[in-house]
Write a structure and sequence with these properties.
It is built from two helices and three strands. The chain has 101 residues and is α+β, with helices and mostly antiparallel strands. It has a three-stranded antiparallel beta sheet with strand order 1-2-3.
Length: 101
């Protein structure tokens, strides 16, 4: 194989997608969110979030969903950072510095 062909194969990238699901449960005062991300390696990561409406605030379900959903996705983000950190350590055979947001 020529060096040019090797470089072309090395530089090509495979498009990857993640499947993310968010579900909400609301009772007028509280919103709960459950999030799930399916990764190409077959693993699934789940997160949960919660939002509460103050009794004097107007009922705005969309706002509760945004807050609860963001909190659930934030949990997933932190778990993804931990997963990546563990994979870096496993591959390198050493303990690296933690990955922070």
């Amino acid at each position: 194989m020529t060096q040019t062909m090797q470089q072309t194969q090395t530089m090509s990238h495979t498009a990857v997608g993640w499947h993310v699901e968010l579900e909400f449960d609301e009772d007028g005062q509280h919103t709960r969110a459950a999030a799930l991300v399916r990764l190409p390696d077959g693993s699934e990561i789940r997160g949960h979030g919660h939002a509460s409406r103050h009794h004097i605030d107007n009922d705005q379900p969309r706002v509760g969903e945004e807050i609860a959903g963001a909190r659930a996705l934030n949990q997933i983000a932190m778990q993804l950072l931990d997963k990546a950190h563990g994979e870096i350590d496993a591959d390198s055979g050493r303990t690296s510095h933690p990955i922070h947001v």
